[in-house]
Amino acid sequence: MVQILSDPVEELRSRMRGRVITAHDTDYDEARRVWNAAIDRRPKAVAMCETVEDVVAAVSAARDSGLEISVRCGAHNMSGSSVVDDGVVIDLRRMNRVVVDPDARTAVVGGGALLGELDAATQEHGLAVPAGIVSHTGVGGLTLGGGMGHLSRMAGLTIDNLVRAQVVTASGEVLTASADSHPDLFWAIRGGGGNFGVVTEFEFRLHPVGPMMSVGLMFWDLDHASAMLRFARGLIPTLPVDQNAMIVAMNAPPAPFVPPEYQGQPGQAMLVEGFGDPADHAVLLDRIRSEVPPTWEFASPMPYAALQQMMDEPNDWGRYDYDRTVYLEDISDEVIEVLADELPNKRSPLSIAAFYRLDNAYSAVADGDTAFSGRRAPCYALFLIAVCPNEELYAADRAWVQRVGDRLKPLGIGRAYVNGITDNDPKVVAEAYGQATYDRLATVKRQYDPDNLFHRNHNIRPAG
Question: Which residue, among 333, 342, 323, has the nearest Cα to 381 in the 3D structure?
């Protein structure tokens, strides 16, 4: 039987070393704020956890008080799952320590660390964890859903490089999940999201990357975008693992390296990345130029950490955001036709459609080895993202994302990336994982969270 306490906030304060913030505090609005401006929720308390003992106390106090729980790291989740009305936000941002062992090529990372903090610590040693592409994203949320980015072809997903994790469960236990300890839980947290507890610490394998690399940004206006896509579909799958190309439908930024007459112009960009010999990268750029001459381009050596920050400004806090992903086997003529038809219809200059190529190291992990919501055969993940400065443009581009997603879904290969789902619709979540993975996750959920305490997420319901 759940015990309802007379003053749950005071009970929480009595159990924690860290601060508990409520609506009576001057920094309450800042504490409850999340990255997506479309989300505005008012928790009863924000528990600023400083230690794993604080997390245990917060989980136990909220559970015993009958209060809903959300977990916050970087607060980057599109759906705003990290903040909850009238409940307790377990805030990990002060648990952001990163410790690198360059000899073992591992990093121990606090559950509240941001990708930029992880990159800064690992790049001191010329090492990196495969992760996302916006540095103010939280390590925790990104990892638990999968984690893809510039290094996915070379080194796999973030979860493919997870060695172990420290997890606080719904009962308040502190468990180590790894291949040798609670392997069922370890399987589930590698893709199953925050359904199974609060992850307070991660340990990752590291890979030699940087600190310098080669980058080329090439841009084609809408009249030439389809020709570039047809060329790219033949090029990208053939690239060696130390080269990568990301395609982004976008408006040219107001940057000094963009000719003034093209700034703000819509089109298709290709971010061409070289992690190996700069001469090989130069040859690749020459090949692209000769086959499909870009409208404009910019090429330069760049620190890997700077590449990881390239998308920070257009994805800054305070904008209205909505996301949807589609897995595609190829950039088919039908896909190109949809994009050519729909790209001129987006309203916000910040809204994008971005292709990630997934193969090589990504495909070296077998389907079912992790709980990742995607198939491991070579494919593309297409992210349709509305990024808007105001509610009017948000309404228009949210509808644009939904419409383009609906048109592309029949051309896809099924499922969706859970980190790219904005709406917490149970049917969408179940479809994303596929029946076999979802059923296995539900069985693990029943063991570690039978009452579904952790449900402010892309929720997996406990098996009946």
Answer: 323
Strand 266-274 relative to strand 212-221: parallel, antiparallel, unpaired? antiparallel
Residue 369's pLDDT is 96
> Helix crossing, 278-291 with 222-235: angle to 10°?
130
Cis peptide before 303 (omega within 30 of 0): no
Q: What single-letter amino acid sits at 252?
A: A
Burial code of 173-206, b = ≥16 C-beta within 10 A, e = fewer? ebbebbeeebeebbbbbbbbbbbbbbbbbbbbbb
What pLDDT digit, counting tens, does each position of 202-225 carry?
999 999 999 999 999 999 999 999
Nearest to 459, CA basis, from 430, 417, 422, 437: 430
| Continuous segment of H or E residues that includes residue 305 | helix 304-309
pLDDT band for position 1 (cuts 50, 70, 90): very low
Torsion of the alpha carbons at 280, 283, 285 and 290, rounded to the nearest 10: -160
How far apart are alpha carbons 412 and 455 in whole angstroms?
A: 28
Q: DSSP class of residue 138?
A: B
Return the bridge partners of 101, or none: 106
This prediction's pTM: 0.94
pLDDT higher than threshold 70 for residue 165 = yes
